[in-house]
Amino acid sequence: MTAYQNIKTETKGRVGIIRLDRPKALNALCADLVRELGQALDAFEADPNIGCMVLTGSDKAFAAGADIKEMKDQTYQDVFLKDFITVGWEKVSQVRKPIIAAVAGYALGGGCEMAMMCDFIIASDTAKFGQPEITLGTIPGAGGTQRLPRFVGKSKAMDLVLTGRMMDAAEAERCGLVSRVVPLADLMNDAIATAEKIAGMSLPATMVAKEAVNRAFETTLAEGVRFERRTFHATFAFDDRAEGMAAFADKRKAAWKHR
Ligand code: CO8
Fold this sequence. Notes:
Elements: E1 7-12, E2 15-20, H1 31-46, E3 52-56, E4 61-63, H2 68-71, H3 76-81, H4 86-89, H5 91-94, E5 99-103, E6 106-108, H6 110-117, E7 120-124, E8 128-130, H7 144-152, H8 154-163, E9 166-168, H9 169-174, E10 180-182, H10 187-199, H11 203-215, H12 221-234, H13 239-249
Parallel strand pairs: 2-3, 3-5, 4-6, 5-7, 6-8, 7-10
Antiparallel strand pairs: 1-2, 8-9
Helix pairs in contact: 7-8
Bound molecules: octanoyl-coenzyme A (CO8).
């Protein structure tokens, strides 16, 4: 397995776990960390034994944002020429296998944005979310102004982006940013059990389901429903669709060919 400096990876059954691990900076997302994260995502994406991923941090911080110390002296030319953020970061939103964010502690700025790039967020009761970039004289740069309103609506997104305040896990669940909140001690067990359940499904069905839900955020309702209909029809080409329905009719457990 590749040796990483800023993350740790492990597998549990068909689940690939990536842990952000830069404790001295509360997992601030420096360039090396983002590069390693991209490599780990690529490796799990390519591994036929992995059906779902979990992205997590420490009890204290999922990630406290982009690395401010690394950013502070950069010029417009620097960030423009290297297309800062686009390279590396987008990979989290581009993996085709499902990925769950398991968030404890701070998920701020780029950390909150990275959690939102995952398919859904399971939070511990100690989690804190926010987009504090305004307090640094800048704005979210990894999708915060676009993804946050889609999760929580305009009013709450404006409140968070314009004040830079943090919200706790209860508020994040109320407004739909997270799918569920669990006690800190249960966070990883819950996230891994959820990922195992997903990884136990037919992989092609899981991947097209993810693609179809994501389409809802990128198109009109009519186009989205048309896309869903065509994709649903296409699942009739899957061996596993035939097996799933046959297993139901035979009152037996489906034996997926593609997992
Ligand atoms: N960048 C660099 N270092 C950080 C960051 C960060 N984002 N967050 C914390 N650290 C460091 C601290 O400097 C400190 O280091 P040191 O011990 O050397 O002084 C160490 O981590 C521990 O932090 P604190 O002592 O501050 O810990 P506290 O428990 O007192 O406070 C907080 C925790 C409230 C989370 C506080 O650390 C904080 O406010 N951090 C900054 C949060 C923030 O503003 N995040 C947004 C960053 S901007 C951003 O994400 C833009 C995204 C756009 C895309 C970016 C692409 C790269």
